[in-house]
Every structure is written in C-alpha cells, then in structure tokens.
Amino acid sequence: MLAKRQAQSTVPAPAVKQEQQNDSSNHSEKKTNETDEGYEDLNFVQRDDLLLYSQLQSELSQYESSAAAFTNDLSLKALRFELQKAVLHPLNEISDLSGQHLQDKLDRLASLLRGNAVNVGSRVVRATEHPGGLEYCTNLLARRMVSQGEDQVNVNPKAAFPIAAVITELWIEFPIFGRLVLAHFYRQCPYLVPYYAPQQEGQSNEDYYKSLGYRYSNGKVEQQPAYLKRMSGVVRLYAAILISLPRRNQPHPHGLEHAWRYLASLLNLSPRNDITAAILVEFLSVAGHAMSKEYGKQFQKILHLICTEYFSMIRNVTPKGSGGGPVTRLEDFLQESITKGGIPPPAGQLPLRFW
User: Fold this and answer.
1) SS3 25
2) Which pLDDT band holds residue 24 (cuts at 50, 70, 90)?
3) Alpha-carbon distance 252 to 124, whole Å?
4) Which pLDDT value is given to residue 126?
5) Would you give the DSSP letter of residue 195?
6) How far is 63 from 113, CA to CA, in rounded Å?
C-alpha cells in the first residue's frame, strides 16, 4: 500500500549505478506475490536488493576461501601477526586530529594494499610476501573497518566521519575493497540492504538472531537496547560514507544516489518494531541534510511521507506500553526538522578540504 502511495507521489528516483547482480540461486526465502512487471515482491526485502545482497555474500565467501590456506597455515602465524598489526595499528589511530594525521593513516593502509613494503615496528613486511596474504589483509581491513561502527562509532558518533573518509578513498583506489566493505556491512547489519530476514525452517533461535547481528554470551542473547545502539553505530558509519566528499573531485564510488535508493527501498517495506525507527533516525540525522541539498523538493516529499503515513505505520507496530525509545527519538527528530525547516548537518562532519 505504501509502495502505491509512493508511486503516486511522483517522487522520481535518481539514477543509481547498478551493481552486477547475477547470483541469487542459493537464497531460499519464499516469495509472496508478483508485480505488474512480472517480478516477484517479498514482504521483507526488495527483489533487486536481495539479488545484490546474495551476490555480495557469495563474493565475500569466495574471497574468504581464497585466503583460507594463508589464514590456516600454522607456519605463517608470525607473518599473519605482523600483517594484522600493519592493518590494525593505522586503523585504530584514525581520527579527525588533523588532515595530516588522517592522510598518514590512509597512506599506510593504501601502501599495504598496493603490496608495498611497510614498516611494522622494527620489521618490514609485504602483504604479497606469500600467496593469499594480500587477500587476507584486504578482507581483514574491510571487516574491521565495518566493525568500527559498532565498536567505536557506537561510543563516539563523531568518529564515523574520519573513518568514512578513509574508507571512501580506499574504495576509489581498490574497488574490490569497497565490495568487501559493502558485503561486511550487509552481513553485520542486514537492515542496510534493507533486509528483514525471516527465520528459516529448522533454523535455531540462536542462529537466527546471530544472522540479524545479535551477540550471544553464555548462551544468552544480548539485551535489545545494546543491540539497537550497536546497529545504530553501523548505520551511522554507512551513512557517513554516503555523504563523504572524495578529494580532488573524484567520483564517489558509493554516494548519495545510493542513499536515495536505500531510503526508497526501506520505505517500501513494512516497518518492524524498534529497529526501523532506530535505523531511520540514525540514517536521516547523518545523510538527511546532504540529501535535502542534492534532491530538494523530491527529498521534502519523501520526508513528508515519513512524517505522516510511514510514522503512523511505525506507531502501529510498536507494542503499547513498550516505552518506544527509538520511536520517541524518531518523533522528536522529525518534529525538530519541521520546526527548524530542515535537517542540520551532522555534528562531526569533516569540513570541505579538511585534508
């Protein structure tokens, strides 16, 4: 019903560069009905988004397999340890301290991915020193970059922007790194597809909740507030990438057109309790200002839809008496946006020509 209303609202979707999508044969979710174009719609994910998700997860699995021999070889333990340090030391030091500081971290990581010799303490190592080493480093960096969303951005929201800036620059030079980053985002937080994954027949509760990004400790699933906070950190980092401004006027490898695609896909799915409100307010607080500047009245129409019909849908799936923390936060955000006549730039965004 919402999809029909959106189609009638004449909000044109900007052109989005299509990712290659040709492998969805391994996905077993049941489909519900068919559109006029003959494509099958799902009530938990859009068909094209599911194709991309499946393709990226397949690529990620293949890439991890290509590095498996290097990862599991006991004789290479010392080399792996040095390469881990070559990845993690500059990664953990990324901050907005200064443009020069950020440039240094980017240079060190880019040099590693180029296969150049890099200094790790008193030793010099190369990712290409042994077959599988470069794949190991590239995937480790992509995975740990995405993990910064739930580990660092979760605690310090402003940290999203220097991390996003480095990810964007590396994505430009190393497209396979960017594909891996996106695959890890989707694996860690499938709501970024957006994908409300249903529980599969025979799938245990623990396996199902882990597929949604929940953590388990001693057989117990984490509390909902902690989970929502971590997912919000991941969403904030992803949104920060979308609005990051590449240096030297280079084309963005995953820019605002993908923000529009994501928001349109999200609004074409029925909202879920808690998580939809949590990710929506985080996404809009980071990307909303840039989207408003880029798309003008088109974005205002979609924001009006969120404030009216879609927010009512969110209210309807929120249990009475549940407190509704994320819903209240979204409502306050939308009301403030209306009162102030727009969405302000996110706090902590790097200024133009920062580096």
Assistant:
1) coil
2) very low
3) 33
4) 96
5) B
6) 15
- For residue 314, pLDDT over 80 is answered with yes
Whether 1 is covered by a domain: the verdict is no
Domain around 84: 47-197+204-340
Q: How far apart are CA 163 and CA 160, in angstroms?
A: 5
Q: Contact at 8 Å (CB) between 283 and 265?
A: no
Extract the runs of DSSP E, i.e. beta strands, from 286-351: none
Scan for tokens 């597809």, then name that residue: 193
Q: What is the pLDDT of residue 2?
A: 42
Joined tokens for residue 104 = 């240094």
The reply to whether 4 falls in a domain is: no
Render pLDDT for 99-150 as a digit per residue (tens, 0 to 9). Answer: 999 999 999 999 999 999 999 988 999 999 999 999 999 999 999 999 999 9
Specify the number of domains making up the chain.
Answer: 1
Where are any strands of DSSP class E within the chain?
33-34, 40-41, 118-120, 123-125, 216-217, 220-221
Residue 45 DSSP label: B
Q: List the structure tokens of 215.
A: 């953590």
Instruction: Decide if 351 is inside a domain.
Output: no
What is the distance in angstroms between the CA of the first residue and the CA of the last residue of the chain? 46
Residue at 125 is within a domain = yes
Tell how strand 216-217 and strand 220-221 pair up. antiparallel
- The one-letter code for the residue type at 294 is E
pLDDT number for residue 111: 98
Tell me if 192 sits within 8 A of 235, measured CB to CB: yes
Which tokens belong to 63?
């890439």
φ/ψ (deg, to 5) at 39: -85, 150
